[in-house]
């Protein structure tokens, strides 16, 4: 293999981003992915069914090829999530804020992942989408409470997390998602914590 071929392959690799989409089942992960594909690849919106296992999509954006890994969120699949952590550049965590009874479960699962940052990688950026805001009676209050809760969990950990309220069906709140994933957009306005381990 010649030097020019190696350099070319490295340049292509440098432009690849791996985005892992996780969250509980029925949080809207596949709907977020479907919105991105329809918006940036002109694919028609599809009826969304629960993801069993995983789906991989490649989305060109801003000179990058973004590999989107949409992983099923059923409780039986969660023990296998860490099999997908290697070489992840961005973790996109989706929370259904309309399902009040499951918000705690979702936050706990995220906390477990963040406690094991050595598996996910310390350079991996975290984006949290508070999805289905259109189904919440007082979305501002619910969103503020959720941000405060995440802040309390992360205050002992040096983990920058960006948080945004969204409605994946309409795409409201997702306008800056892809620029944020490639690191060029306006920050969603997330949480900055100090240092030290969770525990």
From TrEMBL:
InterPro entries: ARL2/3, Gprotein_alpha_su, P-loop_NTPase, Small_GTP-bd, Small_GTPase_ARF/SAR. One of its GO terms (molecular function) is GTPase activity. Pfam families: Arf. One of its GO terms (biological process) is G protein-coupled receptor signaling pathway. Keywords: GTP-binding, Magnesium, Metal-binding, Nucleotide-binding, Transducer. Transmembrane segments: none annotated. Mg(2+) binds at residues 30, 51. The keyword Acyltransferase does not apply. GTP binds at residues 23-30, 70-74, 131-134. NCBIfam families: small_GTP (TIGR00231). This is LAQU0S07e01552g1_1.
